[in-house]
From TrEMBL:
Database matches in Pfam families: DPBB_1 (PF03330)
UniProt keyword terms in alphabetical order: Signal
Protein name per Swiss-Prot or TrEMBL: EG45-like domain-containing protein
PROSITE patterns referenced in this protein's UniProt entry, alphabetically: EXPANSIN_EG45 (PS50842)
Signal peptide per UniProt: 1-26
PANTHER family: EG45-LIKE DOMAIN CONTAINING PROTEIN, EG45-LIKE DOMAIN CONTAINING PROTEIN 1
Keyword presence, Iron: no
Superkingdom field: Eukaryota
Domain Expansin-like EG45: from-to ranges: 44-141
């Protein structure tokens, strides 16, 4: 029997929005951080002019690298939770640009295998750096 796409999609979509509010179409993943020296190696080589002016950037983990298509993408990111208690800074959302791939980093990430590796400045805006890994909600801008 035919059911209209609208009727089928309505209830699951509405409950998703409630769950993920305020980033209504966001994904959930994990985040770590890395320290200088910073180069945008896998995206832009040694061209440091590619870093965003506000210096809020990140390297893509395996899950969002997208074969390099993620270079230059911007994401809204917030901290959801962490193993370390009270590590998230409540109510803080940052916008970061992807400038590298995890394999290109000059310094080892605070945790391996995360969705996104934030610059230490970006990480510090949403969480305490005593946490090596945080659970994040992120949405492409
Ligand atoms: C991540 O993996 C590298 C290479 O295996 C290892 O040297 C490093 O200690 C690991 N980092 C963490 C935080 O486990």
């Amino acid at each position: 029997m035919y059911r209209s796409p609208k009727a089928q999609g309505l209830i699951p979509y509405a409950s998703l929005i409630l769950l993920l509010s305020p980033l209504s179409l966001a994904d959930v993943g994990t985040g770590a951080y890395y320290n200088p020296p910073y180069l945008p190696t896998e995206c832009y080589g040694t061209d440091t002019s590619q870093f965003p002016a506000n210096n809020l950037f990140a390297a893509a983990g395996e899950g969002i690298w997208d074969n390099g298509a993620s270079c230059g993408r911007e994401y809204l990111v917030r901290c959801l939770s962490a193993a370390a208690p009270n590590a998230c800074i409540d109510g803080q959302t940052i916008q970061v640009m992807i400038v590298d791939y995890v394999d290109g980093l000059n310094s080892s990430p605070s945790q391996n295998g995360t969705t996104m590796i934030l610059s230490s400045n970006a990480f510090a805006m949403i969480a305490d750096q005593s946490a090596a890994e945080i659970n994040i909600e992120f949405q492409q801008v």
